[in-house]
Design brief:
Elements (H helix, E strand, L loop, with lengths): L1 H20 L4 E10 L3 H9 L9 H5 L4 E4 L9 E5 L7 E10 L3 E7 L5 E11 L2 E11 L6 H7 L1 H22 L4 E9 L2 E10 L4 H19 L8 E6 L4 E9 L11 E5 L2 E9 L5 H14 L9 E4 L13 E7 L3
Antiparallel strand pairs: 1-7, 2-3, 3-4, 4-5, 5-6, 6-7, 8-13, 9-11, 9-12, 10-11, 10-14, 13-15, 14-15
């Protein structure tokens, strides 16, 4: 009897090994959802790792997990590491390795002793709605036999978390303050203005603007310079780093002898003008619509885009009521 049990056990082991030879050495998990929001808004929540805490399913599973951020937290090269409850989130690191604006984000996942994987998000927009597909791929060929059988169960392990995360992302994006954009042809200028030009990252942009405004306000007060109108910015390049000038219009030409604050004159010129109503967080959507307008009309910008901040957030606390004019110069 003992021999029969032993032979049966060995036969079962052999059968499992044979079956494993025909099982795939990789596992793929995928879930999708459609969100009633523009692609620029949805993409921003995934491209900025610091916003993941607002929708990630694992943040809910272990709110107390430790997170350490990399030097970059948004876009290509952004990264973070986490360590938490071993039964819920474990530990590991993530890095964004590929970004196609408003189309795709790919990240590399390192689960330490548990191996590595690739995560992906693809975005497509139709009729103002965005379809997001969250994918996950990993090698399950090791350890032999066991890994492949584990890979067969991967969808059941990970799929529900993806569904929860996408549901959170959908609720977040659809509840975000709405915005509107009206586009037409106009002129911008002329302006005498003082400015501070800097290179920074998206996450530090607001802080740099505030510091620039403070420096120019102090400079104007010390030199008896009269400011007129609301501030505007000129953007010379976008990307991992943003090269921009924060500007305050002044009444007349001024002589500047300062290492930080400069003076310039902007002549009047033809522009494509977008009137954006809503939060600054949604400016990306308006830029996207203006880009499409320019493309549809075979137009090209001849200078740096300009953001003119018509509404003072200090006087109007509701972002839904903020007005920002966006200008694309099209003159010679």
């Amino acid at each position: 009897m003992l021999k029969k049990i032993l032979y049966g056990f060995l036969a079962l082991i052999a059968l499992i090994v044979i079956i494993s030879l025909f099982l795939p050495g990789s596992a793929h998990v995928e879930r999708s959802t459609t969100i009633d929001a523009p692609v620029e808004r949805v993409f921003a929540y995934v491209n900025d790792l610091e916003k993941w805490d607002d929708w990630s399913p694992w943040s809910e599973k272990d709110p107390d997990m430790d997170v350490s951020w990399g030097e970059i937290t948004e876009g290509m090269g952004a990264s973070y590491c986490w360590e938490g409850d071993p039964d819920q989130v474990g530990k590991g690191c993530l890095e964004i390795t590929e970004v196609v604006e408003n189309e795709k984000i790919v990240n590399k996942l390192d689960f330490m002793e548990q191996g590595t994987a690739t995560g992906s998000y693809t975005f497509s927009e139709a009729d103002g709605k965005t379809t997001v597909t969250w994918g996950f791929d990993t090698d399950v060929s090791s350890p032999p036999v066991v890994g492949k059988f584990f890979g067969m169960m991967m969808d059941g392990f990970v799929g529900p978390d993806f569904e929860k995360g996408l549901a959170n992302l959908k609720a977040l994006a659809e509840a975000a303050p709405s915005y509107s954009i009206e586009i037409g042809e106009s002129n911008f200028g002329p302006y005498h203005y003082i400015y501070v030009r800097q290179v920074t990252t998206a996450e530090n942009l607001a802080q740099m603007m505030a510091e620039s405004a403070g420096a120019m306000t102090e400079f104007a007060a010390a030199n008896g310079i009269e400011s007129v109108g609301t501030p505007f910015s000129q953007y010379y390049s976008f990307g991992e780093e943003i090269d921009f000038a924060f500007c305050i219009p002044v009444a007349e030409e001024v002589t500047v002898d300062d290492e930080v604050v400069m003076y310039a004159f902007l002549e009047e010129g033809a522009c494509i003008k977008g009137v954006h109503l809503g939060s600054y967080d949604n400016l990306g959507g308006s830029y996207g619509e203006m880009d499409r307008y320019m493309s549809d009309n075979a137009m090209e910008s001849t200078g740096p885009p300009i953001e003119h901040y018509v509404t003072d957030p200090g006087e109007e606390p509701d972002p839904a009521n903020w007005i920002t004019h966006i200008y694309y110069p099209i003159g010679s």
